[in-house]
Q: What sequence folds into this?
């Protein structure tokens, strides 16, 4: 039976570390500040925004919340971002996705200053990630790396397989694994012999968006399995991209869904906000 990697526990450890640093900064009269912008009334997005506010409160980070109506124009949203970019007391800007259809997401994300891009989505930050110099790393991929390392697993020299090549998770998590000296293979919809490739992985990251896609026959005995997927089944329960019940019996370490990668995303967002604040204020 696999060791269960507790994302709730590890995310709390990270938030506690952030809170301790925030307290030290407050003695210098500096408080990290995160602006979260929500356009429209998507229920899932509203839940994410609430959770981000709670995490800010826990860590001592100032939270600015902009909840805009669905009919907000692209020009109005870009104007708000310009205002936040120009505000020296605001260190991180996060625009909750998805945006309403009439707003160009790419244009909005490009408008955020790279040094305030706490989601790590700006092409400038993605470019830094690709050459191993990222300051602000995409939150979910960075969370995956923390889960592996804080479980006592050394990534260096390991055969790592990432299933999925999205710009949000698959590609960046592959680059972060390489930065830790892992040997990385990326699988996707056009990959041949995927089961065979996955079954040789010491570390397997599933980020494909298909419920229970990774089965026990695709997993090496004793492998570390990180499940980024979150899918709702017909019975209303959540499941990941990994068939947890069968894979748990074979893996060495595994993340559950929920309670694995999910909590890490917001913890890494808090860490990015702290990092951005320190960089903007020239604090090492």
A:
């Amino acid at each position: 039976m696999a060791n269960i990697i507790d994302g709730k526990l590890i995310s709390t450890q990270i938030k506690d570390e952030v809170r301790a640093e925030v307290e030290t900064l407050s003695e210098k009269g500096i408080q990290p500040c995160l602006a979260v912008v929500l356009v429209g009334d998507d229920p899932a997005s509203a839940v994410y925004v609430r959770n981000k506010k709670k995490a800010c409160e826990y860590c001592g980070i100032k939270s600015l919340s902009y909840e805009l109506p669905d009919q907000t124009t692209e020009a109005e949203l870009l104007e708000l971002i310009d205002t936040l970019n120009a505000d020296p007391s605001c260190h991180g800007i996060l625009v909750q996705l998805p945006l309403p259809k009439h707003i160009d997401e790419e244009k909005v994300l490009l408008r955020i200053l790279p040094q305030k891009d706490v989601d790590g989505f700006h092409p400038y930050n993605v470019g830094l990630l690709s050459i191993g110099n990222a300051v602000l790393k995409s939150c979910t991929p960075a969370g995956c790396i923390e889960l592996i390392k804080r479980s006592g697993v050394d990534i260096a020299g390991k055969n790592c397989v990432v299933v999925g090549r999205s710009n949000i998770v698959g590609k960046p998590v592959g680059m972060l694994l390489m930065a830790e000296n892992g040997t990385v293979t990326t699988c996707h919809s056009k990959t041949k012999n995927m089961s065979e490739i996955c079954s040789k992985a010491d570390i397997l990251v599933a980020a494909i968006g298909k419920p229970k896609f990774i089965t026990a026959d695709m997993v090496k005995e004793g492998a570390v399995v990180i499940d980024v997927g979150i899918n709702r089944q017909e019975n209303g329960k959540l499941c990941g991209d990994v068939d947890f019940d069968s894979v748990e019996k074979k893996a060495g370490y595994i993340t559950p869904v929920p309670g694995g990668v999910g909590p890490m995303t917001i913890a890494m967002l808090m860490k990015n906000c702290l990092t951005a604040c320190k960089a903007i204020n020239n604090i090492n």
Q: What stands out?
A: The chain has a mean pLDDT of 96. Residues 31-113 form a domain with the Rossmann fold fold (CATH 3.40.50.10860). The longest helix spans residues 7-26.
